[in-house]
Amino acid sequence: MQELSFTTNGKIWLEINNEKVLGPGRVELLERIHSSRSIRQAALQMKMSYKQAWDIIKHINSCFNSPIVLSKRGGKGGGNATITQDGLELVNQFHSLQRKFAIFLKGNVIANNILSKS
Amino acid sequence: MQELSFTTNGKIWLEINNEKVLGPGRVELLERIHSSRSIRQAALQMKMSYKQAWDIIKHINSCFNSPIVLSKRGGKGGGNATITQDGLELVNQFHSLQRKFAIFLKGNVIANNILSKS
């Protein structure tokens, strides 16, 4: 009889007016922009196009009353992007949510002994 | 200034040895098999092919020590499928998890006033 080991896994994200605004992928994008100070670099690292990254950023910024990402385009040495204090706060809060979710997942497993015996 | 209303949303599923075994879609398939007593009907209702439904069922059954779906193929009036007691217990336990998850989501929202003021 095989050894069964059930785990509960999942994914969470933020919505505004039923529209997905921020999940783990977008948070990663924000963090990569924060460390590289470049939307182009962050997009490259995440194997997405510059346009895709820009569209995501425009969407995120449009969902908040103050910008999450500030960027200057072009110029010598290319553009420059920063995550605002509000953006960093948002990222931190999302991570805090993720930690609570991880605890939830660990604490809510289906008892496999009920299911593996008949 | 637009009215912001953040919600936390998400999805959970069960894994065995890091492989997805059961999520909301598969639970729905099991429930539809249970009420129609037919894999073909359940597949139709969920707009999937009979083969897709069968592959899912074979996979689910292979993950447990006792079958979750029992089926007789063909014969007069087509085949006949039932969900075992273990299968019904599994479905119930998944719904119970989903209810706890819904409570988790409601209780874990990001305070939008922090983010909407700068």
Layout: helices, strands, pairs:
Two copies of one chain form a homodimer.
Chain A: E1 6-16, E2 19-22, H1 24-36, H2 39-45, H3 50-62, E3 69-72, E4 80-83, H4 85-107, H5 112-116
Structure description:
- The structure is a homodimer of 118-residue chains.
- The first copy, chain A, is of the alpha+beta class and 118 residues long.
- The first copy, chain A, has a single domain, classed as Arc Repressor Mutant, subunit A (Orthogonal Bundle).
- In chain A, 52% of the residues lie in helices and 19% in strands.
- Chain A contains five helices and four strands; from the N terminus they run ββαααββαα.
- Chain A has a two-stranded antiparallel ribbon. A two-stranded antiparallel ribbon of chain A has the order 3-4.
- In chain A, strand 1 (6-16) and strand 2 form a beta hairpin.
- In chain A, helix 1 crosses helix 2 (39-45) and helix 2 packs across helix 3.
- The first copy, chain A, is elongated, with a radius of gyration of 19 Å.
- Chain A starts with 5 loop residues before the first strand and ends with a helix.
- The model of chain A has no long low-confidence stretch (mean pLDDT 88).
Number of helices of chain A: 5
Assigned CATH superfamily of chain A = Winged helix-like DNA-binding domain superfamily/Winged helix DNA-binding domain
Major pleated sheet of chain A: 2 strands, antiparallel
Identify the quaternary structure here: homodimer
Give the amount of beta strand of chain A, in percent.
Answer: 15-25%
Number of strands of chain A: 4
> Which regions of chain A have little confidence, pLDDT < 50, spanning 5+ residues?
none
What is the C-alpha radius of gyration of chain A, as a whole number of Å? 19 Å
CATH topology title of chain A: Arc Repressor Mutant, subunit A
Mean pLDDT of chain A: 88
**Largest interface: chains, residues each:** A-B, 43 and 43 residues
Helix share bin of chain A: 40-55%
Q: Write down the secondary-structure element order of chain A.
A: EEHHHEEHH
Find the structural class of chain A using helix and strand composition: alpha+beta
